[in-house]
TrEMBL record:
Stretches for region Disordered: 1-23
Keywords, alphabetical: Membrane, Transmembrane, Transmembrane helix
UniProt keyword Transmembrane present: yes
TM region positions: 89-110, 116-135
Species of the source: Neoasaia chiangmaiensis
Protein's UniProt name: DUF2335 domain-containing protein
Presence of keyword Transmembrane: yes
Length: 160
């Protein structure tokens, strides 16, 4: 119906019908849509006032629920941060134990006259260790770049 050329083809009446079709099409295309958006744990102030006009206890209950929801979200975020830290520490500790065990194996092999095995084991262990550190550094850099794109700030806190 927004197609200008479609209106005359739909006309079955007299010569003035085309002009009426054109005006109707123009009116349809000139209408505007207004959207009022709100985001937050509480309704808009006008809505909260409307609830309070019905019953003052309702507004107090809504505010109390919003406070409780905020507290719950804060606790959840703190727990997620603690678990992420524990997970990171556990993976670093496991890698450290594995690396030290492999280096101990290399030293033991060298003490028992197996220099080639010791060299291969030590070189492989150090290469994997440095590779893991480098990969971790790259991933952290990409994460900070991604988060700075979301917030519009660079990694040093300046506006991007």
């Amino acid at each position: 119906m927004g197609d200008y050329e479609a209106a005359p083809r739909l006309s079955t009446e007299g010569p003035g019908q085309r002009q009426r079709d054109v005006r109707a099409t123009q009116q349809i295309t000139q209408q505007h849509l207004f959207v009022k958006a709100h985001r937050g744990p509480l309704p808009q102030a006008s809505e909260l006032k409307a609830y309070a006009d019905i019953d003052p206890a309702i507004a107090s209950a809504i505010v109390a629920m919003a406070r409780e929801n905020n507290t719950t979200q804060n606790v959840t975020v703190r727990r997620e941060q603690i678990f992420a830290l524990a997970r990171d520490l556990a993976s670093v500790l496991a890698a450290l134990i594995f690396g030290l065990a492999a280096l101990y194996g290399a030293v033991t092999a060298a003490d028992h006259d197996h220099p080639t095995t010791a060299g291969i084991l030590a070189t492989t262990t150090l290469t994997i260790g440095f590779g893991a550190l480098l990969l971790r550094r790259i991933v952290k850099s990409e994460r900070s770049d991604h988060s700075s794109q979301k917030t519009g700030r660079s990694t040093n806190g300046e506006e991007a």
